[in-house]
Amino acid sequence: MELKKVIKRVKELDSNALIATKEFREYVEKQETEINRGISSLCILSILIQAGEDGLHGYKILKDLRVQTNDMLVIEEGTLYPILRKLEDDNIIESKREELGRKRKFYRVTDYGKKIFNHLAGFYSKLTEAIGHLYDINVNLKAEKYLFCPMCANKIELSNLELRFCDVCGNNIEKELKERGLRNE
Amino acid sequence: MSEKEMKHLIKEFLKEIKSKLPDWLKYKKEDKEILAELEEHIWIKAEELSETGQPTLETVQMAISHMGSPQSIAKEYKRRGIPKVYITQEMWPLYLKVLGIVFAIVIGITLISQILDFIFGNVDFWQLFGNIFQGIQIGCLSTFAIITIIFVVLSMEGYFPEDFKSKKIREKEKQQIELAREQGIPISEIKERPVKPYIKPIGVIIGGLIAIIIGIFFIVQPIPAITSLINLKFLIYLKFAGLFMLVEGILDLSRGLIGNRQFFTHQILHGITIGVKLASISVVILMMMRPEIFPILIVNEPGDNIINIGIAPEYYAIFRGIAGLIIALIVLTTIEDFYRIYKAEKYKFLK
Hints:
By secondary structure, chain A is α+β, with helices and mostly antiparallel strands. Chain A has six helices and five strands. The longest helix of chain A has 30 residues, at 22-51.
């Protein structure tokens, strides 16, 4: 749950709570912002990839983000657009204006952006798996659905049976596919 | 509550954001589109928050509060670039370039103004030396401070070097990069531009041929009517100068013919050129020491014979000054050769 909401709730309950103290709150807020900043772009890309070719407008992106992260990852609504602009500048997403009652700007992920996403998602997944034990949690990487390139951690969907090489680093992944019984010896 | 009041509320909020947006966004005229998108967001949110599906003043206020503060929104647009010692990594090459240009101008102006002062007798030699040192020190330090402050502010505002270019130039550069990619020309990671060829062979070949022709002319000395008027020692100096020019010309011609490949050979050729250039200084020094044998050939009246009047003794100092300048120029051109040896190293990697 978003820290600000937690603080609000705690304040209502107990004004002497640790989370209500300035020092604690400022430190935690700062750290939370840092963590959120890193993963928010990745989550936005994930939401946009799910939307496919039609894309989504800004408001819907935020709404889906809230729903799909159980209100944990909350971006200040106005700050979504600078993030989208940066992604567009880097050719990771593209936009077009569509007249649907109201003039709206729809965003979709470019082919290049999909490769960037797969690579970063792979890295992030492997990282969370690796650090999971530090927090005493288990992370399921869905090995039946994805292969993570042993060279660069790129996330590769196993539904594409034609694949022989990682499309980011060019590593031959046939050995890994054989090990999973997805290729004949 | 009227729609007018709701619009006014949104307008005020957007106005505050606009005032805090970085200038580079305004130059690019992107601020209107950004504000339009934010306005659209507020209206949708206000509609959704309303029980009737129609926005009210209260839901508009709530929607605005969800947007975050105008400062935080504008700050996010400024958050560009990778920090590197207060100046972003993206702005760093431009910062160094500007510093280099401004330092060169400061040094140039200081040298010229102080040398002119010396020539006109306003300062003696030691004052000249002191003034040059002081002028360069103060000039470089003050410009360094000003430029650094400007670049720190620009980095904080989220500027990128391309923000100083027009849309037309940006498009042109983008096309050049795409074309270079298609043609397999490497792209410089620092400048983000197609790498320029190491040499322009035609220019180098023409330069080499000219040097060879002049060199042969000095060695052969084919016009006895003129050479008979000149001191024999000077003619020998001229032959040596011709020999050096011939060798340099051949080296240039070879580099031109090799073109943009075999960069190690280029490095060897530049190394030999440095040796030849430094050796040629000895000829200039010899000429410098003997101003009395330097020929000045003139024709008094049309139809008269050519005569050698030489240099008048009162101009010997100027003659030596010019010779000193030529030596300085030769040394400076060897710096270029050293640079090209270093540059060839990068091209080896690219190829």
